[in-house]
Design brief:
The structure is a single chain. This protein is an alpha+beta fold and about 190 residues long. The chain has one domain. The chain has 5 helices and 8 strands. The protein has a 4-stranded mixed β-sheet, with helices on one face. The two termini are about 25 Å apart. The N terminus is likely disordered.
Length: about 190
């Protein structure tokens, strides 16, 4: 449905326009397609959390819980909630696409393991490990936002959106040789 509305709007603007440049602006929706996953990145994350317990402030015990996790991050654009602009230069056969900001979905924890490099008399290490594992998704969101700053991830996202828009133009009979994509910046980054 979104593709259809996008194409109808693009066809109307291209056929009715006396100039060779057509601009389409959607501030709220891209009908039919709400989110498009642009890239996925899987990484291993290791950290050690120190745990301290004390009894009556006199007896104190420390332990360390080491966590190793295999985490996958999905980077996407949200056409439903974010606007975009598309400008087609028919003469140069270029589509200029001002895309919504790239967002990061909550990470998927593929596998995790724990170990205890230091144990303490008052610390129940397995219980602490369970507590840590239950909060991993929330703890790893910042890691996904940091990955978004890597040139490799940005290149994957740009290439995927260019290919998607080229395919969409071809599907609807537009001769486009190149898609120039720019992503808007957004302060929020996660779903």
């Amino acid at each position: 449905m979104k593709r259809m509305l996008f194409c109808i709007a693009l066809v109307l603007l291209v056929s009715c326009s006396p100039t060779r440049i057509v601009k389409i602006s959607f501030t709220e929706k891209f009908e039919g397609q709400t989110q498009l996953i642009l890239a996925s990145q899987t990484t291993n994350i290791n950290f050690i959390e120190e745990v301290s317990k004390s009894v009556l402030g006199i007896l104190k015990s420390d332990a360390k819980v080491k966590v190793t996790s295999n985490v996958t991050y999905d980077f996407y654009v949200d056409f439903m909630n974010d606007g975009y602009d598309a400008t087609l230069d028919k003469k140069e056969k270029i589509l200029y696409f001002s895309a919504p900001p790239i967002r990061v979905k909550k990470p998927v924890i593929n596998a995790s393991s724990v170990s205890f490099p230091e144990t303490g008399i008052l610390v129940n290490e397995p219980q602490e490990a369970v507590r840590i594992l239950e909060t991993l998704t929330d703890n790893f969101i910042d890691e996904g936002l940091a990955l978004l700053q890597e040139p490799k991830v940005m290149a994957m996202c740009t290439e995927k959106l260019q290919d998607y828009m080229l395919g969409l133009c071809t599907e609807f009979g537009y001769t486009v040789e190149r898609v120039d994509v720019t992503f808007r910046q957004d302060k929020e980054g996660e779903e």
